[in-house]
């Protein structure tokens, strides 16, 4: 690689890194506790119960949640994949922003309400919102996606520059006979190449995750409409009726869905009037029971009046791509050991990012004839000189 080419790649690496580093640091710092979301988040205490205990009535849980918030409706049900609990949110309308939901959490075996803090409040919620959208909604999410793309450019350019670097010293060398800046340069390069695969995967899957809103809109405008067209719509509630009045029992509807799609677990129920259902249908989302299939949703649509299942589909490829990227991004598909590995890589990446800023900043204002600068350029001309 010619010196001119090295300088060009160094320019790309330096400025793509500098533009996105502060946001990448924010994502790494907020992502660290999110890796342990299950361990650090609300964790209700569940009593020991016989394994064959029949489930309690979901209709009764919904009635209790609505009685606790008069005038509100229940737009969704969220069943936990690993624990026998269901989150029942209430809101002023079926289209209320989920950030404003009030939740009651129930034990699905007994129907008892559990003493759990609100999932959309507290430290973990602040970390999640910063990580997802900087509290700025879809624009914030798309902005972070742009920063993620710049981060991918920085990673690729760093790999290109690592070739000339490794021709001068052996892999893993951290030189102690130069300046402090030269030691940090070696450590930056070493940790950068060690975390390369992980950092690349997490960055790419993070960018994919920022496309969740457009993917949801595409699914709503495409597959949801097609599924609803498979059956005659049930009559809409009369003017002034409550959103869940004159409809089939939710317990009966769930039994119908489990019979129609055996071997899968229900994770989310979207009632009529929400963005993920129609005015006449209930949308039910199911998952499998393996580490991979437990992350891929299969949508079913049921008539809200009769409870009859009218359509079951596999998600389109673009939605499956989103679902597959999420466990890879957070490393939560292999239990606590994998989460610990993800956290260690996260910490190493934080060091890479901070050391990159350190390497850039001391070079500002240092005289070209400075003795330390001359030693650094002599030891690592491919990277150090191009960065000053």
From TrEMBL:
- InterPro entries in UniProt: PepSY-ass_TM (IPR005625)
**Record keywords: Transmembrane included?**
yes
Any one Pfam family here would be PepSY_TM
The UniProt keyword set, sorted, is: Membrane, Transmembrane, Transmembrane helix
Q: Which residues cross the membrane?
A: 12-36, 134-163, 184-208, 340-361
What PANTHER family has UniProt attached to this entry?
A: BLL7967 PROTEIN, IRON-REGULATED INNER MEMBRANE PROTEIN-RELATED
Q: What is this protein called?
A: Peptidase
């Amino acid at each position: 690689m010619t010196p001119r080419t090295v300088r060009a790649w160094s320019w790309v690496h330096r400025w793509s890194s500098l533009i996105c580093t502060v946001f990448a640091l924010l994502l790494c710092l907020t992502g660290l506790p999110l890796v342990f979301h299950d361990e650090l988040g609300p964790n209700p205490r569940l009593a020991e119960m016989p394994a064959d205990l029949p489930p309690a009535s979901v209709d009764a849980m919904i009635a209790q949640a609505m009685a606790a918030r008069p005038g509100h409706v229940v737009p969704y049900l969220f069943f936990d994949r690993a624990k026998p609990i269901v989150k029942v949110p209430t809101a002023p309308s079926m289209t209320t922003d989920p950030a404003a939901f009030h939740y009651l959490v129930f034990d699905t075996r007994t129907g008892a309400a559990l003493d759990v803090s609100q999932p959309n409040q507290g430290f973990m919620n602040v970390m999640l919102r910063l990580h997802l959208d900087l509290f700025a909604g879809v624009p914030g999410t798309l902005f972070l996606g742009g920063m993620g793309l710049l981060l991918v450019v920085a990673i690729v350019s760093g790999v290109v520059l690592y070739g000339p670097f490794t021709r001068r010293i052996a892999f893993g060398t951290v030189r102690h006979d130069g300046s402090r800046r030269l030691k940090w340069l070696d450590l930056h390069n070493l940790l950068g190449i060690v975390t390369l695969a992980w950092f690349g995967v997490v960055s790419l899957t993070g960018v994919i995750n920022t496309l969740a809103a457009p993917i949801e809109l595409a699914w709503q405008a495409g597959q949801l409409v097609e599924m609803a067209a498979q059956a005659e719509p049930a009559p809409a509630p009369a003017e002034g009726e409550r959103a869940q009045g004159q409809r089939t029992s939710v317990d009966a509807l769930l039994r119908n869905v489990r019979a129609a799609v055996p071997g899968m677990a229900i994770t989310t129920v979207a009632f009529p009037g929400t963005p993920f259902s129609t005015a006449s249908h209930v949308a039910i989302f199911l998952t499998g029971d393996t580490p991979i299939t437990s992350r891929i949703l299969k949508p079913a649509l049921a008539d809200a009046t009769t409870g009859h299942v009218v359509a079951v589909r596999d998600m389109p490829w673009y939605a499956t791509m989103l679902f597959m990227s999420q466990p890879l991004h957070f490393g939560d598909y292999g239990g606590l050991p994998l989460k610990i590995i993800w956290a260690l890589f996260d910490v190493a990446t934080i060091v890479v990012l901070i050391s990159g800023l350190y390497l850039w900043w001391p070079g500002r204002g240092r005289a070209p004839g400075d003795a330390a600068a001359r030693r650094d350029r002599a030891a690592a001309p491919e990277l150090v000189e191009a960065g000053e």
